């Protein structure tokens, strides 16, 4: 689905390939170190972030997880619902209107929620089947669409025309949002990796996994270019899935429907399960995992209905994806720099102080908040949002300063790294947060006595 956005933005096929590859690889390089936290601490990355933001400041990671879950659960419901209606229209002539689309969205949302509610093992089994099935269906797609494919598809925006770079950067950011979206809940999976596993092996595994997503990305890009030529009305309506169903050969029609449903099921369950689990740990007295998952699922369903029937859904999802990248990337940079400065030393037990309703421990800092991490993340995220430039969708107050080019990502990444390192230098963290080897910097840690964890 995300692979179709360069075509929807007006780019050529070749420019779309460059935007997707750049976005995925940049996102994978940023994401890779986030796979280390789960193996080191045996918990998700939102909880691990308490080491750098404070045990209360970990809610920043939980908030980012929530945004991610809503965006990508909504995307999965949208694409799969459109596939179900499009398939029924071609098979039995079912009309495509607000009622049928609404029923399809509701049906698929309930299916994803059911998988998540049954628990981790069932979800893992579903995802294993989804990966194998989707791979086989992608291979079948090569002979199905290769005949009419034209790698020279020009699009409506060419290099040198006004708006080209804005569309290119926007498409790259949408592609980058996929790997970055895993940053907050990658620990839900990597926490099962043995602590003694070589770190390089984990880093390479994460990069390889994200590089593999280029297959569905490029499949979406290639088929979207075909839809733009054979059924341009669907592209004008931002209905890539419907267009794909319309141009698919008869023998490949059912595989296309299955591919959309399987892909949406895998994406939706991955986004929703970990976030529900994390939210239940933030509010353990109010929400169980099941209730938290239901709450997030209902919020996402509301988003998908409002976005589909009240606003332009492509604008809603692409804007939301860019905002996720803008806010999550500086948070990840702070986590990664903190990992390096502390030489990978963490105390997993003290990370659970907030969940247990206690206070104190190595990561208590200032009443549970570490203003070094927060002081770097908040202005960096705001600066990035101010420079977002997606024409016709979202333009920040400073978004036009670069002539329409979106500078949100480099500015938010650079400012987060600079601010965090400066704050660590000016206000050294307590010595207790560092291991026996001490900090990876010349400044001596602050000699602050450790407050043992105790009941609140």
Outline of this structure?
One of its GO terms (cellular component) is plasma membrane. The protein has helices at 5-8, 13-31, 35-41, 45-48, 50-53, 59-92, 98-118, 120-145, 164-181, 187-190, 199-212, 214-230, 232-236, 240-247, 253-282, 289-309, 313-341, 348-351, 371-386, 408-426; strands spanning 358-359, 389-390, 394-395, 454-455.
Provide a descriptive summary of the structure in words:
- This protein is 67% helix and 2% strand.
- Helix 8 (120-145) packs antiparallel against helix 15 (253-282) and helix 9 (164-181) crosses helix 17 (313-341).
- It has a single domain (2-455), classed as Hydantoin permease (Orthogonal Bundle), CATH 1.10.4160.
- The protein starts with a helix and ends with a strand.
- It is built from 20 helices and 4 strands.
- Strands 1-4 form a two-stranded antiparallel ribbon. Strands 2-3 form a two-stranded antiparallel sheet.
- The radius of gyration is 22 Å and the shape is globular.
- A hairpin with a 3-residue loop joins strand 2 (389-390) and strand 3 (394-395).
- By secondary structure, the chain is mainly alpha-helical.
């Amino acid at each position: 689905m995300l692979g179709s956005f360069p075509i929807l933005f007006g780019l050529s096929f070749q420019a779309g390939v460059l935007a997707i590859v750049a976005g995925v690889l940049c996102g994978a390089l940023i994401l890779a170190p986030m796979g280390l936290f789960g193996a080191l601490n045996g918990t998700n990355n939102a909880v691990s972030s308490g080491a750098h933001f404070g045990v209360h400041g970990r809610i920043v990671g939980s908030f980012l997880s929530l945004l991610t879950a809503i965006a990508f659960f909504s995307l999965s419901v949208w694409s799969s619902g459109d596939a179900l209606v499009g398939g029924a229209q071609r098979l039995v002539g079912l009309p495509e209107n607000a009622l049928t689309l609404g029923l399809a969205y509701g049906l698929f949302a309930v299916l994803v929620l059911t998988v998540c509610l049954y628990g981790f093992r069932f979800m893992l089994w579903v995802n294993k089947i989804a990966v194998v099935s989707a791979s086989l269906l992608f291979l079948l797609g090569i002979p199905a669409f290769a005949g009419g494919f034209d790698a020279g598809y020009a699009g409506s925006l060419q290099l040198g025309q006004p708006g080209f770079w804005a569309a290119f950067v926007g498409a790259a950011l949408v592609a980058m949002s996929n790997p970055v979206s895993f940053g907050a809940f990658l620990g839900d999976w990597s926490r099962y990796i043995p602590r003694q596993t070589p770190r390089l092996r984990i880093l390479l595994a994460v990069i390889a996994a994200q590089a593999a997503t280029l297959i569905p990305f490029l499949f979406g890009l290639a088929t979207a270019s075909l839809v733009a030529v054979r059924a341009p009305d669907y592209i004008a309506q931002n209905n890539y899935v419907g267009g794909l169903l319309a141009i698919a050969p008869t023998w490949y029609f059912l595989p296309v429907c299955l591919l959309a449903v399987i892909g949406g099921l895998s994406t939706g369950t991955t986004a929703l399960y970990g976030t529900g689990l994390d939210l239940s740990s933030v509010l353990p007295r109010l929400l169980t995992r099941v209730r938290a998952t239901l709450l997030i699922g209902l919020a996402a369903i509301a988003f998908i209905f409002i976005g589909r029937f009240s606003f332009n859904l492509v604008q809603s999802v692409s804007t939301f994806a860019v905002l996720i990248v803008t806010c999550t990337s500086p948070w990840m940079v702070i986590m990664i720099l903190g990992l390096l400065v502390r030489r990978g030393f963490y105390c997993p037990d003290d990370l659970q102080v907030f969940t247990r309703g206690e206070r104190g421990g190595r990561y208590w800092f200032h009443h549970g908040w570490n203003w070094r991490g927060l002081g770097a993340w908040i202005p960096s995220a705001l600066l990035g949002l101010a420079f977002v430039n997606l024409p016709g969708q979202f333009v920040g107050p400073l978004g036009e300063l670069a002539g329409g080019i979106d500078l949100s990502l480099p500015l938010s990444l650079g400012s987060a790294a600079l601010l965090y390192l400066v704050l660590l230098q000016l206000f050294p963290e307590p010595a207790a947060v560092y291991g026996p080897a001490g900090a990876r910097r010349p400044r001596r840690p602050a000699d602050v006595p450790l407050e043992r964890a105790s009941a609140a």
